[in-house]
Amino acid sequence: MLVTFKCHASPDVTMLENLAQYLLGIIGKRLGPRGVITHDELDAAITKLEAAIATDKKERSEHEGHFHEGEEGRDHHELPVGLAQRAFPFLDMLRAAKKEQNDIVWGI
Fold first, then answer.
1. Most-buried pick from 8, 48, 80, 88 (CB within 10 A)?
2. What residue spans carry the region label Disordered (predicted)?
3. Which ranges in the chain belong to alpha helices (H)?
4. pTM assigned to the model
């Protein structure tokens, strides 16, 4: 299932339900049929999401040393897409909503 986040300050952001549930969980919200992130909640939401992205980047950089690209007898390993790439459109929406003091809604 797809979830579409809407805000007057930015284009709609559509993502798979499992990613929406994960990102909302990071910022302390639950995915329901309908929901809202009020402009008063945006500072905390942005801070929490940025912290999660920083942690993910740190953990990914630590694991990159375990991939031996180009070594003889080793298969090429591609790192999966990180949280920064997956969360960027949503984080961008949060920042735009904060700038214009808008709420973000879904399920409407």
1. 48
2. 56-78
3. 17-26, 42-64, 83-99
4. 0.83
